[in-house]
Write a structure and sequence with these properties.
The chain contains five helices and no strands. The chain starts with a helix and ends in a 5-residue tail after the last helix. The protein is mainly alpha-helical. It has one domain. Helix 1 (2-26) packs antiparallel against helix 3 (38-58) and helix 4 (66-89) runs antiparallel to helix 5.
Length: 119
Amino acid sequence: MRTLRSALVVFGVVFVLGVPAMMMWVWPDGWSWTPRQPEYEQMIMGVYATLGIFLIRAAKNPMAHASLIWFTVWSSVVHGGIMLVQAVLDESDRINLLGDVPALFLVAIVLAVLMPRQG
């Protein structure tokens, strides 16, 4: 449970601070789409910052927030899967196969593995 709590905080901070940093300054090519779409990017940053705040809050009692954690797992799989297909089909976005696509799958895998199964 301690590892899950840590992962929730780490991913929460990454969603709040890391996603905007990657999209705007660190590696825009691997984290945004071509051509650049500032309105889309602001929306994505806002949604992920909000999710990040709630993941940090969920770290205090992960089992009480299981649905949020599973939403994060499955929405990351869906988002990453859609982006994977788009990046494969559009060669101008292939760099995303090294950026945000694997990052989304990493979030999903780590949280799914660490989240206890309720039975």
